[in-house]
Design goal:
Strand content: 5-15%
Number of domains: 2
Low-confidence stretches: 1-7
Order of helices and strands: HEHEHEHEHEHEHEHEHHHHHHEHH
CATH class of the largest domain: Alpha Beta
Mean pLDDT: 94
Structural class: alpha/beta
CATH architecture of the largest domain: Alpha-Beta Barrel
Radius of gyration: 23 Å
CATH topology of the largest domain: TIM Barrel
Helix content: 40-55%
């Protein structure tokens, strides 16, 4: 009887295993079909102009989280490449240097789409252009400006940026700009403008006139509330998550989230590990860095902080990266053990934020972003080649094809259309 019982239990276990495997396989097929059908848009991908040259560019599978091969592997249709400028001094010299930096990044993006790989990727400025390029089988580049500091005090520069293809812009980054306070003011409760400056208010009006989406991902809460009051068009958060789930100043609290619902905007949920789950992120990377530090000491290699790496010259950075990869390789077994007990922030943690936002403000006001090559990425969506994993997790949670299409791009394109329509009305006056 024991043998018979064991045999029956074994058969049931096998049937259960194959049943689960079949169910997972069917879910994977369903997710794959949806992923390949919908337009997938990531609204925040940083760039380095050194990766936009004849010899080194995005047609190659570079050591970047986003490039054309990775986009094709992950079926990521649209990448918003970012004209980012760090916050500097609020004076003429600072504005001049920032402007030059911004222009160099605009030129790099145009070089990719017009000279390096026009047969593979095109620049879009409208939803119609996005759809046309996707239908042609091409990848799509769009341009967002992270920090309006480069416009200086000359608001005509906003139109110059628009003419170069910019279709969203934030008025601040880390540090207060001449236009807006930053979320970073929370750290010591120091504010420069108590929201927007007078120049910032005028910038909002000019962006409405031109048809540039106003991005609230880095400005202070007070500045964001003032933007909602002033803007005649919906706003976006190009890369922010829910503060209720992760109490970080870069995330949006419920009061701000409800303003997006009221005014028709969209929050592009960001897969930035420390903004998804700060405690889990910190615990994992503290343990990981200890492993790398210990392994590095064996070969007299010093593991540097992220800020220190940023300060290296390009040749030094490349040498550091090559040596660091050797440390990563030699640490793999220890890292695998760490992941079993204290895993990193992952796609499931990330989609928890999407779930929360959808429940709080509705499916029509939520989107997706990574902040790749700017510190973004979670386990399972480490680069553009793993983009499908987000769709798979959404399918697992019961999202329909129509809902997934909205999250991946239709909501963002709708807002882009609405902002453009407001601009046309303003220009009639």
């Amino acid at each position: 009887m024991k043998i018979t019982a064991i045999f029956i239990i074994s058969i049931l276990s096998i049937n259960s295993f194959y049943g689960q495997h079949k169910e997972q396989s069917e879910m994977w097929k369903k997710a794959k079909k949806i992923h390949e059908k919908v337009i997938t848009i990531d609204t925040h991908d940083d760039i380095n102009i050194n990766n936009f040259t004849t010899n080194r560019n995005y047609t190659q599978d570079l050591n970047t989280q986003v490039n054309l091969p990775k986009m094709m592997d992950g079926c990521l249709d649209v990448a918003w490449f970012i004209v980012y400028t760090g916050q500097g001094e609020l004076n003429d010299a600072g504005y001049e240097a920032a402007y030059k930096n911004a222009i160099s990044k605009f030129e790099a993006i145009h070089r990719l789409t017009e000279e390096i790989a026009p047969d593979k990727i095109g620049l879009a400025t409208t939803s119609k252009e996005v759809r046309n390029l996707v239908n042609e089988g091409k990848l799509v580049a769009m341009i967002g400006v992270e920090n309006a500091y480069p416009i200086g005090k000359d608001l005509t520069n906003i139109e110059k940026f628009y003419d170069l293809g910019a279709r969203y812009m934030s008025l601040a980054h880390n540090g207060h700009s001449q236009l807006s306070d930053s979320n970073t003011g929370e750290e010591n409760n120091y504010w420069l403008h108590n929201g927007l400056s007078t120049l910032g208010e005028r910038a909002i009006a000019e962006m409405n006139r031109l048809g540039i989406m106003i991005d609230v991902s880095h400005p202070s809460k007070e500045a964001i509330k003032q933007m909602f009051k002033l803007s005649k068009a919906p706003l976006i958060a190009s890369h922010s998550s829910a503060r209720a789930l992760c109490d970080h100043s870069r995330n949006l609290d419920d009061e701000l989230l409800l303003l997006f619902k009221e005014h028709g905007g969209v929050v592009q949920t960001v897969a930035f590990s420390s903004y998804v789950n700060t405690n889990k992120h910190n615990a994992y990377y503290a343990a990981l860095n200890d492993i790398y530090k210990t392994e590095g000491e064996k070969v007299d290699f010093e593991v540097l902080s992220r800020d220190s790496i940023r300060g290296l010259e390009e040749t030094e950075k490349e040498l550091y990266d090559n040596n660091f990869q050797k440390i990563v390789a030699s640490s793999s077994s220890k890292v695998n053990e760490l992941r079993k007990t204290s895993g990193p922030v992952n796609v499931s943690d990330y989609v928890d934020h999407i779930d929360y936002l959808v429940e709080k403000i509705g499916i029509d006001h939520v989107g997706i972003s990574s902040d790749f090559d700017g510190g973004g990425g979670v386990d399972g969506w480490r680069d553009a080649s793993e983009t499908f994993n987000v769709t798979l997790e959404l399918v697992k949670r019961g999202y329909t094809e129509q809902e997934i299409a909205k999250l991946w791009g239709e909501n963002l394109l709708r807002v882009l259309d609405e902002v453009e329509a407001v601009a046309k009305e303003i220009q009639k006056c």
